[in-house]
Amino acid sequence: MPKHPTDLLNIESHFTAEELEVRDRTADFVDRRIRPNIGTWYENAVLPVELIGEMAQLGLFGMHLHGYGCAGRSATEYGLAMQEMEAGDSGLRTVVSVQGSLAMSAIYKNGSEEQKNQWLPKMAAGEVIGAFGLTEPTAGSDPSSMATTARRDGDEWVLNGQKRWIGLASIAQIVIIWAKAPTEGADGEITEKVRGFIVPTDTAGFTVSDIEQKLSMRASLQCDITMEEVRLPADAILPNNPGLRGPFACLSEARYGIAWGAMGAARDSIEAALEYASARQQFDRPLSGYQLTQKKLTDMTVELNKGQLISLQLGRAKDAGTLEDHMISVGKLNNCRQAIEICREARTILGGNGITTDYSPLRHANNLESVRTYEGTDEVHTLIIGHRLTGEPAFR
């Protein structure tokens, strides 16, 4: 029998024993360390930094990267872990995503061997926290319009600019900052391209402040960054993949994890509503005995299973090396869109009790407002898929 009553199609049967072990180990961590406290953390806008070391011990940081102290697990195993983490809370799943899929992935995909050996083992162990600075106050969906610049001054790089909505930046030791910098091509011509830089957060001129009064992702950290004449050594630059393909490859990693994670929030919301409906008596019978309630539960669970199957297909394709960017967009667009509707509908079954932090659906729905927006809005992923279907780019 599947572990979850929402697994109507016995999707669990498609996973190996090793994959299920990763899922169950992560789920146990969520049950023990996150569920009992998440309501308070969310209400008080607290990121429980004490859990970061435990996440590292579980091998969650850079989980599907190979070598350099990383766990080297499969993409499917990573996806299952992200589903369980987000069943706990989107904000805590984001900790893993920012550290592994963004900051560590940036170094792994674009860095030198010296940079990889210097940083990745410490980041996998949770000894160094990283962040990923791409989005700016006026450059979100269009990163090519970023205003952050890097100029060469002798043996140093000098960075100036601002970044916004940067996860974990105020507790990070390094931030991968993306900036427009002069770059020499194969023909010797100098052009301006987007480049990544490893920036220690204690560098002079580098200032971070938390974004407060959020209505979403409250048990996590998002920050503003200001850089004024931030001086870095010449070897701070990530040498490989100049241009937007550098950060975009990292975004694809994060989007992949989101497709799985959103289904964790959706599943947790359905199961909370199912448990509540089975216990709550109205008009001398449980809510679960009414046709309208059963229709809600059925519709939500069918969409959940469809989204989980999309995630599974993405995982198998990623492990086989056949995953394409438009496939990730299908998963990110569909699963976030459906998850937020599922969480909202699950809240209706809980009635007035559903607006408290005693129950998860509304918290999940609020978090998913952020998850649906970052790493590509619905509109961006719609245009990626539309480009694939028609061959016509319609971004401008």
UniProtKB/TrEMBL annotation:
Domain Acyl-CoA dehydrogenase/oxidase C-terminal residue range list: 249-389
Protein name: glutaryl-CoA dehydrogenase (ETF)
Source species: Garicola koreensis
Swiss-Prot/TrEMBL cofactor(s): FAD
Single Gene Ontology MF annotation: glutaryl-CoA dehydrogenase activity
Positions of the Acyl-CoA dehydrogenase/oxidase N-terminal domain: 16-127
Keywords linked to the UniProt accession: FAD, Flavoprotein, Oxidoreductase, Transit peptide
Residue intervals of the Acyl-CoA oxidase/dehydrogenase middle domain: 131-230
Catalysed reactions, as listed in the record: glutaryl-CoA + oxidized [electron-transfer flavoprotein] + 2 H(+) = (2E)-butenoyl-CoA + reduced [electron-transfer flavoprotein] + CO2
EC number: 1.3.8.6
Keyword Transit peptide in annotation: yes
Pathway(s) the chain acts in: Amino-acid metabolism; lysine degradation; Amino-acid metabolism; tryptophan metabolism
Statement: the UniProt record of this protein carries the keyword Plastid: no
Broad enzyme group: oxidoreductase
Family: Belongs to the acyl-CoA dehydrogenase family.
GO biological process: fatty acid beta-oxidation using acyl-CoA dehydrogenase; fatty-acyl-CoA biosynthetic process
